[in-house]
Write a structure and sequence with these properties.
mainly alpha, 2 helices, rod-shaped
């Protein structure tokens, strides 16, 4: 019974699980923020290309 109470293998596994979960949350947050930034950049580029294409078509 004492050996069971002193066994810390389960606690170590839980700690590793918590660390992995924390890393996953940080990665998800970073990818989400980066995705929003990249999406905004692509929208800006798309608008500029659309504007440039329409102005070229009317110049002829």
């Amino acid at each position: 019974m004492l050996r069971f109470l002193n066994d810390e293998n389960g606690a170590t596994a839980i700690e590793y699980g918590l660390i992995a979960a924390l890393i996953a949350v940080v990665i998800i947050g970073a990818v989400s923020a980066l995705g929003t930034s990249v999406s905004s950049t692509f929208d800006t580029i798309s608008g500029a290309l659309s504007s440039a294409t329409s102005s070229v078509g009317t110049a002829s």
